[in-house]
């Protein structure tokens, strides 16, 4: 086990994270006001920065919950600084999720921070640590969809509304995928402490391939249709229509345009 003495710098918010938040704020303002000469570029930067912020908070939630559950090593590892480059799997946690957003408009679950589970006692604590990350995505989804289900869209500019709809889609897909009880994903981490030792040993070799298995299954048209039908139904219940999410994605990919999504199109 790692032993470390807590230092103030272990919990100081990283300038890298603050910089990402600043990008999200400035480009969100530019999207709202129409200040940007290229609104699609502003939406791209706003959604990408906001998505990275949610990924950082997802990993932070895991680490913070682990800290309060007994793993005091997370501070020395830099997990409490919200710095994306400090996480164990920066490629899985940040780079790949952003690439999947660009390529397919889907919220990819990131790689979890490394928690020293041996320091933590009690099955409920282990489950809560795993659930903390995707619950952050749920909270983000609630915030992004609030203007829709509160019927508070009067005065909200079109581009900003579409950006929020697409960002909500990313958060909903990330939460659903993360909560799947598949080895390697947070959903399995929630139920793992309650499984027998024999079952855990049997499925342990699948953990590195869990995410690949999920996306292989989503590649099957029938399963892909069921998954996105469920996502669309959930978003519609929150007041976000298919056109909003589709045009939000098209606006995000500013290098291509669909006449359906242009004003007056």
Mean pLDDT: 87
Rg from Cα: 19 Å
> Low-confidence runs (pLDDT<50, min 5 residues)?
none
Rough outline: globular
Task: Label the structural class.
Answer: mainly alpha
H/E element order: HHHHHHHHHH
Helicity level, as a percent range? 55-70%
| Distance linking N and C termini | 60 Å
- Helices, by number, come to 10
How would a textbook summarize the main sheet?
none
Strand fraction: under 5%
Number of strands: 0
What do these coordinates show?
The structure is a single chain. The longest helix has 31 residues, at 39-69. This protein has helices at 15-33, 39-69, 90-104, 123-149, 158-178, 186-191, 197-203, 210-218, 221-237, 242-252. The protein is built from 10 helices and no strands. Helix 2 packs antiparallel against helix 3 (90-104). With 265 residues, the protein is mostly helical.
Summarize this structure as a short list of keywords or feature phrases.
62% helix, mainly alpha, protease, membrane, Metallopeptidase_M50B, 265 residues
How would you briefly describe this protein structure?
The protein has 265 residues and is an all-alpha fold. 62% of the residues lie in helices and 0% in strands.
Helices and strands in order, then pairings?
Layout: H1 15-33, H2 39-69, H3 90-104, H4 123-149, H5 158-178, H6 186-191, H7 197-203, H8 210-218, H9 221-237, H10 242-252
Helix pairs in contact: 1-2, 2-3, 2-4, 2-5, 4-5, 5-10
């Amino acid at each position: 086990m790692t032993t470390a003495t807590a230092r103030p710098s272990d919990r100081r918010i990283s300038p890298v994270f603050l910089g990402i938040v600043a990008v999200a704020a400035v480009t969100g303002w530019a999207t709202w006001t129409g200040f940007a000469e290229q609104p699609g570029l502003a939406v791209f930067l706003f959604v990408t920065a906001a998505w990275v912020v949610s990924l950082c908070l997802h990993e932070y939630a895991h680490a913070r919950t682990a800290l309060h559950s007994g793993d005091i090593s997370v501070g020395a590892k830099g997990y409490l600084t919200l710095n994306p480059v400090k996480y164990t799997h920066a490629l899985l946690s940040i780079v790949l999720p952003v690439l999947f957003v660009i390529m397919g408009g889907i919220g990819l679950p990131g790689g979890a921070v490394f928690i020293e589970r041996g320091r933590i006692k009690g099955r409920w604590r282990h489950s809560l640590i795993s659930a903390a990350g995707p619950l952050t995505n749920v909270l983000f989804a609630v915030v992004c969809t609030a203007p829709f289900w509160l019927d508070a869209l009067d005065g909200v500019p079109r581009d900003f509304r579409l950006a929020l709809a697409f960002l909500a889609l990313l958060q909903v897909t990330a939460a659903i995928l993360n909560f799947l009880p598949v080895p390697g994903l947070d959903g399995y981490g929630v139920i793992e402490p309650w499984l027998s030792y024999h079952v855990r040993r049997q499925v342990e070799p699948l953990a590195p391939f869990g995410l690949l298995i999920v996306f292989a299954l989503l590649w099957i048209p029938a399963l892909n249709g069921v998954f996105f039908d469920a996502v669309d139904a959930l978003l519609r219940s929150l007041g976000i229509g298919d056109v909003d999410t589709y045009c939000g994605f098209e606006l995000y990919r500013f290098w291509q345009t669909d006449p359906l999504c242009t004003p007056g199109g």
